Amino acid sequence: MVEAELWAFIAVSSVAYMTPILLVTIGEIIAERSGVVNIGVEGILLASAFAAVAAAFFSGSAALGVASGALAGALIGALFGLFAVYLRADQIIAGLAINLSSYGFTVLGLIALWGHHGASPRVEAELPYFSLGQGSVPLLSLLALLIAAVAWLLLFRTRAGLALRACGEEPSAAYAMGVNVRLYRMAAVVLGGALAGLGGSFLALELAGSFTRGMSAGMGFIALANVAFSGWNPLPAILGAYVFGFLSAAADALQQEVGYAYLLKTLPYLGTLAAAALLGRRSIRPPQRLGVPF
Amino acid sequence: MAPLVFMKEIRKVYPEGTVALRGASFELLEGEVHALLGENGAGKTTLMKILYGELRPTSGEIYFRGERVSFRSPQEAMRRGIAMVHQSFALVPTFTVLENLYLAISSVRKVSQGEVRSRAAELGKELGIEVPLNARVEQLPAGMRQRAEILKALLLEAKVIILDEPTSLLTPFEAEALIALIRRLRAKGVSFVYVTHKLREVKEVADRVTVLRKGLNVGTLQARETSEAEMAKLMVGAAVERAKRRPPREVGEVVLEVEGLVARDEMGVERLRGVSFSVRAGEIVGIAGVQGSGQRELAEAIAGLRRPERGSIRVRGVEIAGKPPREARRLGVLYVPELREEGLALEMNIVENSILARQRGHARGPLVDWGSAEERARGLVERFKVVFGSLWDRAAALSGGNQQRLMVGRELSSRGALLIAHEPTQGLDVTSAEMVREEILRLRDEGMAVLLISSDLDEVLELSDRVIVLFEGRSVGELRGEEASIEKVGRLMGGAA
Amino acid sequence: MIAALSEVALALAAALAFSSLLLLALGYDAASSLLTMFSYGFGNPEYLAAVAAPLVLSALAFLIPFKAGMFNIGGEGQAYLGALLFLYASQGLGALGIAAGALAGALLGGLVGALRAFLGVNEVIASIMINWTLFYVTLFSVSKYLTHPEYPHRSIDVGFSLGAPYSLLLAALAALAAYALLYRTLLGYEIRVVGSSPRAAAYAGIDARRAAVISMAIGGLFGGLAGTLKVMYVGHIDATMSALFGVGFLGIGVALIGRANPLGSVASALLLAGMIIGGHWMELRLGTPPELTDVIVGTTVLVLSAPYALKLLLKGGGLGGG
């Protein structure tokens, strides 16, 4: 491939690669704005990818696959919320537990459904595309951008968003003003889980075309880093997600060109680490009661 | 006529077993200002939180306009027209005043932000409650936040407003404005519960007063007909001998010298704006001032926990401004911090907490000498009457008063040259508080330099050989102990020259 | 102690109940599977020791920083790096390779601690990024430089091995040392004050940054040793990292089920090792996937994370038992 063409290809395919990161980031921004850190999004990404592939495989419908992925995400979000919000669990440990269980659960399912330890068969159900000039972009990627805008409106322009942010800033004050803090936090975590589930569906059905063991590969944590980079705001999150999508797309495209596949794969991780080191001490304040049970 | 609110034989036992209320009753008439008086821990706030639906009573009945009610949330209480203004305000600090008002009101009825804005402006003008609606709450002074809370209550069409220790964060000037506002609102038919432990305020503001002691009401009086002495006796149970200031034995050389100290708080607000003073061996210097006048920044800067912007702090002639806390400790600074969660590691046990900040003195090489640590802990709990289960229980398992005794005791029983005591008696019952005051006097008599910072003005006046008044981060007056009177100091605290 | 034990027992029971339901839903024989897991898992002491030893160490890797208020999720990466360096160094240095593996882990842990202390980088995110980076770096090294001349799908053999009993002995000694460090030394005291209350630590003049770097370095040392012991027992690193993968993550579960106590971690590592071995028997005899162990561990940790959940369970258990 010619140099310029290669980079143009990477730039366009970055849009697809950014999509799961963006969806997880938006979901996590909503959860963290309400005061709950869910590092279980990594596990949700994995489990929903599995659910999406399973549903699409047996029904032959990509739409059903996506819906199942989102539903699985919402359900795991609800389980996490039950512990983190209503049972006042340590949020980090509960999130770790979700990650650990999801890994085991998906491999269990992989073997139970297809008798294979490593990967599911390929799913032929295809997600719709949107033509854009000469190329085309997955419809879900556009939807993710739309969701970012809607989430921004929800958080910063509605009464529900105000109440939700109050839960993350000063839950006791929010409670005293008549906001049902736990309900809001629960709703935020379930919504966050559903969005991560949507991301997992896209990861499996669009980017990979099948389920492989451990396929989320830290993407949930890249999204967690992106939440902080974005200053807990869905619109700047698009930029962050694109940068990481670009690194992943570049790693995949370049390995076919130059080899060193394993080393190129470290690009998104090292990029995230570098960004975290450079931006770590910025003055943007996280929600004041982030991670504190109420 | 049935009272507006009637609370009958309310009992409240907290899950961990603390009995806060043992069958207290309370009645509020329409259009009255009813003071609820009692010591720390008498159950005043608990009783009012129950009325406001923030807590559920263990047993007892509540009537509102003669009808039995049981509020499960503040929201339900608010719908009936009961509002509460907390000591630590129930506002989201990072939101604007308008956002807070809108959030509170929209949770009771459907309303737009624009409507709230115009209604708030209108009501504010009518009642003289001016609050900048677009300012972020965290940037407002305490008096302004309180007015925002009262405005919020009025926008919710509250008929009953509960004020919990409303003047604790106010300057005397702001407090006067508050009392005037209460009178205006009473004339418009609003009833108030005024929770306080300050006798003077009861006489000033209330129609009637109910006194609570150890979770029981011990009397309801007409405020005009009673005296401070009578209320004090009811409140404490028996007349308690308060420590009398006694002249220092022998004042020695300068131990602490602070010069031109400037420091900011966490939000970057300049809280200390050039404070200078000194404390000599064998004297107590008291710092008076409304809370938030720079007291915490002052204490923390001397203890090495806050890096000052400018100025110098010398302990026994050694410059320590901006040096780590270990440096201050090495020079003999003992520090009772304002917050217990700072002076104690609550998740660690009593023995471990007994050596906090002097852990290196209990080391043998790289190891902790747990034998000597335990010995210290035993001595401490005995001398300061800490009630505990086992020395290996977490400090979090102790009651607030016992935590305070443990923390204060640890500092007061250490050797040192300078004691910084910030609110040393907070949360203590009268007897314990007196014991702590006696200990502070004893340390002074033994030659310790003492810097006493307290929001309890009586305490400052009783103990201090010199009183320095802080106002908005500046020292606005220095009086000798015997010439410092409530009136003089009070005026200075409000910023009057 | 008794309270901690009953909490763990109840959490495990809840997790087993959940796992049984999962197995039934997927069409496996739940009762026989779990029976096999527990009755066959503990039959071979040498195998048990070999599986448990790295788990003890990766639990310590999580536990020491945890006491300082940090989440070392990087035990995984520290284990990769430790394994890789031990594999390389043991070729020429023999037993001294162990030191290389441990030291590599310590440096890596200290680096994450320093990133957190001085640049404000969240240690969870930094750890995960480093885990995955090292995952690929290890694969790269094995496939490019350390490939076995005859078997291209794996690395050369390690140059030294302790044997299972001594591995477990080393791990147990490490746990004792960790216990002594935390509860007998001044450094341990200071680490625990920082972890339980950063404000009280500042008050007491304890340098929280120093505690962060040191505790992460010590954690990393144990993480590196965990990888070292694992690769020592397996004898090489294979081209899919199947033996190494998960050692660090499982250590988190081991530490939390051991109630964040070094000695508890030894007990919990032995229990989990038995379940892992039993899981393989379960697969062999009944075809039940061994990853059930991960589900059980995850669910147990989830229940243990919530003090309220435990209270509810204990109350329920109390009623059930009369």
Helix/strand layout:
The complex is a heterotrimer of chains A (294), B (497) and C (322).
Chain A (H helix, E strand, L loop, with lengths): L2 H31 L7 H19 L2 H25 L4 H24 L14 E4 L2 E4 H19 L1 H11 L1 H6 L4 H28 L10 H11 L4 H25 L2 H4 L2 H13 L15
Antiparallel strand pairs in A: 1-2
Helix pairs in contact in A: 1-5, 1-8, 1-9, 1-10, 2-3, 2-4, 2-8, 2-9, 3-4, 3-8, 5-6, 5-10, 6-8, 9-10, 9-12, 10-12
Chain B lengths: L4 E9 L5 E10 L4 E6 L5 H8 L7 E6 L2 E3 L4 H6 L2 E4 L11 H10 L6 H15 L14 H14 L4 E5 L7 H16 L3 E6 L2 H7 L2 E6 L2 E7 L5 H9 L17 E11 L5 E11 L3 E5 L6 H9 L6 E6 L2 E2 L5 H6 L2 E4 L3 H4 L6 H5 L8 E2 L2 E2 L1 H14 L16 H13 L5 E5 L7 H16 L3 E5 L3 H7 L2 E6 L2 E7 L5 H8 L4
Chain C lengths: L1 H24 L4 H11 L4 H23 L7 H19 L3 H23 L3 H22 L19 H21 L1 H11 L1 H6 L4 H27 L12 H11 L4 H25 L5 H14 L1 H14 L2
Structure, described:
The complex is a heterotrimer of chains A (294), B (497) and C (322). Chain A is built from twelve helices and two strands, in the order H-H-H-H-E-E-H-H-H-H-H-H-H-H. Chain A has helices at residues 3-33, 41-59, 62-86, 91-114, 139-157, 159-169, 171-176, 181-208, 219-229, 234-258, 261-264, 267-279; strands spanning 129-132, 135-138. A two-stranded antiparallel sheet of chain A has the order 1-2. In chain A, strand 1 (129-132) and strand 2 form a beta hairpin. Chain B has two domains: 5-236, Rossmann fold; 254-332 and 415-493, Rossmann fold. The longest helix of chain C has 27 residues, at 208-234. Chains in contact: A-B, A-C, B-C. The interface between A and B is medium-sized, with 17 and 22 residues.
Question: What percent of the residues of chain B sit in helical stretches (DSSP H or I)?
Answer: 25-40%
Query: Termini of chain C, distance in Å?
Result: 22 Å
According to CATH, the homologous superfamily of the largest domain in chain B is: P-loop containing nucleotide triphosphate hydrolases
Average predicted local confidence, pLDDT of chain C: 92
Which pair of protein chains has the largest interface, and what are the residue counts? A-C, 47 and 51 residues
Order of helices and strands of chain C: HHHHHHHHHHHHHH
- Structure annotation, total helices of chain B: 17
- Which structural category fits the helices and strands of chain B? alpha/beta
Strand order of the largest sheet of chain B: 6-7-8-3-9-10
- Average pLDDT of chain B, rounded to a whole number, is 89
Low-confidence stretches of chain C: 317-322
User: Would you count the extended β strands of chain B for me?
Assistant: 22
* CATH 2nd-level architecture of the largest domain in chain B: 3-Layer(aba) Sandwich
Subunit arrangement of the protein: heterotrimer
Radius of gyration of chain C: 20 Å
Count of extended strands of chain C: 0
Shape of chain B: globular
In whole angstroms, the N-to-C terminal distance of chain B is 50 Å
**Name of the level-1 CATH class of the largest domain in chain B:** Alpha Beta
- The helix/strand class of chain C is mainly alpha
Q: Domains counted in the coordinates of chain B: how many?
A: 2
